[in-house]
Design brief:
Number of helices: 11
Number of domains: 2
Bound molecules: iron/sulfur cluster
Strand content: 5-15%
CATH class of the largest domain: Alpha Beta
Strand order of the largest sheet: 2-1-3-4
CATH architecture of the largest domain: 3-Layer(aba) Sandwich
Structural class: alpha/beta
Shape: elongated
Largest sheet: 4 strands, parallel
Helix content: 55-70%
CATH topology of the largest domain: Rossmann fold
Distance between the termini: 32 Å
């Protein structure tokens, strides 16, 4: 691993994958506070007009906004607990709040505070993965899908793996051969995608129960948002030559993601039966 990192020649952004949960969780707190303060503002301003219509209306609106504020604050607390302690109190309930509600606002607030977007995305991916694992759901291997970007392929390889990954000769010049072996071992569909739209179409066609996706932070973040509520374990690629060219992935990370989703003991029952002939 250390050797690999030393060989990398990508930008500084492409080399490090050390999600800073502190920044993300701090931003989560700031975002929650801003949302609650905005809720108070939107309650207070129309209070006078509503009071003229009926004296009870300001209290009705207040109770509604208080309920929303409580949900936001509790959501932020549970996400923080999941991130820090590996505990997930209400199972998957708050992953949607993180993916659909907090993340877009946090990216906006982060942009305003000049926090590098990639750091927010890295931490988001890490916490998302933790939440998916904590859901504790187990999936049949044939209902999983592994999505890889085509930039993982060795640049001079002439084999068309985007049409059928089984065309790969397994020469070892890139990680597609190793991934194919892994997909055969477990009986999981492996798809090499030429882009985000093609990947989304594949998910739509295959209708998997869960996905393991490898890409850069930006693509993973937008993919996670689009795919929700589908459980996705996202793995950030390696970029020794920068973005979009001869990228890589730690095969062991993919294997671990498979094991987390299928659970122990699945391979012996299903994996061998699906082995490539
Ligand atoms: S491992 Fe497969 S895809 Fe990669 S260079 Fe070799 S034949 Fe081509």
């Amino acid at each position: 691993m250390a050797d690999t990192e030393e060989k990398w020649r990508g930008s500084a952004e492409s080399i490090q994958y050390k999600p800073g949960k502190g920044v993300f969780l701090g931003l989560l707190g700031v975002t929650s506070f801003v949302m609650v303060a905005a809720g108070f503002f939107f309650w207070y301003v129309p209070t006078i007009g509503l009071g003229n219509i009926h004296p009870a209306l300001p209290y009705v609106l207040g109770a509604l906004l208080l309920g929303v504020a409580l949900f936001i604050v509790l959501g932020a607390v549970f996400i923080t607990v999941a991130a820090l302690r590996g505990a997930f109190i209400f199972r998957s309930s708050f992953r949607g709040l993180l993916v659909k509600f907090f993340l877009p606002i946090m990216l906006m607030v982060g942009g305003f505070l000049k926090i590098p977007r990639i750091k927010i995305e890295q931490a988001f991916i890490d916490i998302n993965n933790q939440m998916v694992r904590l859901m504790g759901r187990r999936f049949r291997p044939e209902k999983l899908l592994i999505l890889m970007p085509h930039c993982i392929q060795y640049d001079n390889c002439r084999i068309k793996v985007t049409r059928d990954v089984k065309n790969c000769a397994g020469c070892g010049r890139c990680e597609i051969g190793g991934l194919l072996t892994l997909s055969d071992e477990f009986g999981i569909t492996l798809f090499i995608s030429t882009g985000g739209t093609v990947a989304r179409r594949k998910v739509y066609e295959e209708r998997p129960d869960a996905v393991i996706a490898v890409a850069c932070e930006r693509d993973l973040t937008s993919g996670l948002q689009d795919a929700y509520p589908l459980p996705v374990i996202a793995i950030v690629n390696k970029r020794p030559r920068g973005y979009c060219m001869e990228t890589g992935v730690a095969i062991e990370e993919v294997r671990q993601a498979i094991l987390d989703l299928v659970g122990p003991g699945r391979l012996s029952r299903g994996g061998a039966a699906h082995a490539r002939t």
